[in-house]
Design goal:
With 88 residues, the chain is an all-alpha fold. It contains 6 helices and no strands.
C-alpha cells in the first residue's frame, strides 16, 4: 500500500521528495502507535483528528510542522480515490 500511495502522490504532481516522505512518515507513525498500515487505513477518520492542531497527539505532529497530519490527509484522499477506482 505504501508503494501505491507513493505512486499516487507522484501522479498527483507532488515533489519526489514528498512522495517518498509522506509514506515514510505514515510508516513511522504506525510503528509509534504499534499499528499496521492496514489498520491505519481502516481507522483513518479516528486517527486524523488526533494529529491536528488541537488533537491529543498535536505535539508529535507539530515537531515536523504538521507533515504527519498532512500525510494523513493525503492518505485519506488516496484511499478515497483508490476505493472509487476499485468499485467501478
Amino acid at each position: 500500500m505504501q508503494m501505491l500511495f507513493e505512486a499516487w502522490l507522484l501522479d498527483n504532481n507532488y515533489k519526489p521528495t514528498t512522495a517518498v516522505d509522506y509514506p515514510d512518515r505514515l510508516r513511522r507513525l504506525c510503528a509509534r502507535e504499534k499499528i499496521s498500515y492496514e489498520y491505519l487505513a481502516e481507522h483513518l477518520s479516528e486517527i486524523i483528528p488526533q494529529y491536528d492542531k488541537t488533537g491529543q497527539n498535536s505535539s508529535y505532529a507539530k515537531t515536523s510542522h504538521y507533515s504527519v497530519w498532512n500525510a494523513l490527509c493525503r492518505f485519506k484522499e488516496f484511499l478515497a480515490e483508490f476505493s472509487a477506482e476499485s468499485s467501478s
